[in-house]
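Complex 138.
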Amino acid sequence: MKKYLLVISFAICMCIVACGGNSTSNSSDSVASTNGNPKMGSIPSDVSGNPDYQKGLGLVSKSDCFTCHQIKEAGTGPAYQDVANKYSNDEATVNALAQKVIRGGSGVWGTVPMTPHPDISLDDAKAMVKYVLMLKNK
Ligand code: HEC
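Predicted structure with heme C bound:
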């Protein structure tokens, strides 16, 4: 079991080195500094190099999500980090949460409803949710 974990962490390291190397350290720096959103400040650079993260963040930033959600603190909506910590990052969850973003709803985090987003495609909503779920820190 231990050996297995070692192999996995080795593989992860290699991936970070391979995908990261010269490009990720640059691009993750520029993600943190050029997106102009101060709420983005403290995301670990290992996820910020992930293309799913980039795509989801781009979509979330273009939509109205950050008017109610922040990364670390609850506002009108729950903190994205709390959402990420509550769920497991699997296909069924991504689907269910993407539907919720599109349809809106309440009752999971409190009585305040999330507004529906009928203009967002299921694919885009899934990309947004994948980004949110990557913020897990527990
Ligand atoms: C008008 C404020 C508002 C906006 C805008 C908003 N949300 Fe929410 N969001 C909420 C609230 C409130 C909840 C908690 C709902 C509940 O308790 O079931 C929530 C919950 C969530 C959840 C967790 C759902 C669950 O069932 O646990 C996700 C994921 C989410 N929002 C993503 C997004 C995304 C992505 C966007 C942008 C497209 C967005 N939200 C825009 C208010 C908002």
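Residues 12-38 have pLDDT under 50 and may be disordered.
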